[in-house]
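ok trying this again, last paste got cut off
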Amino acid sequence: MLKHVYRLMIELTNGRWTSVILRRFARSRVSRFVVPSFAKIYKLNQDEMEKDLHEYHTLHDLFIRTLKKEVRIVDKNENSVVSPVDAVIEDVGSIKETSEMLVKGKSYSIQEMLGNNQTVTKYLNGTYMVLYLSPSHYHRIHSPVEGTIVKQWTLGSKSYPVNKMGLKYGVRTLAKNYRMITEVHTASGHIAIVKVGAMFVNSIEKTHKGMNLQKGEEMAYFSFGSTVVLLFEQGIFHLDTPIHTPKDIRIGEKIGVLIKEDDGA
């Protein structure tokens, strides 16, 4: 019964007023009474948490929890690209010349997703990867690469579900939801890190300061479960091995490599 209540509240809510009510509740001291049941229902790994469960005074505190440093190891190979989140890789593929990518049988426009024609052009014929975070996942987002932030902007208003059902049956969720886009220049080319909200407006909080990013460095956090879409310029990214989706992944695990022009690839 409780699981259905949590799903209704957290995974399926998108209206402005219901979202505001939930946000206020999650940040209130009253919400501490549901912390134990939430942790149990979603099978949170308490051994990885930086604090004991009783130290989270609100449900929001639990959502944005940090982990013990030793529980996530970032691949340090020079050209490696690592997962920016604990998530499920829901899809990976090629971006068409028309700017479309096919996710769960549904076509999404990266032109609509990025909202900038000049930015879109460099990603045509490149690669995309969709990583979904459920309410059970660690919700902080880390940089998948080393590089320099070129620009960062936000788009969208409402946030609809971005779980498997939302991706399949929703109305262009990845391209219409509230989202924060960070474009990063690496030694190989550009990548876009699209952080897609799944709950209410402004559920994405930036924590990184400055323009330089180190691989594995924290960038932001989601207040609730959500999705990250990685976009790579054509010819700069190579998967080490084929990824059979859906696939569980953790922060710091290698998902592929960046290819430089002088690599001959």
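PB: full thing came through this time. The mean pLDDT is 84.
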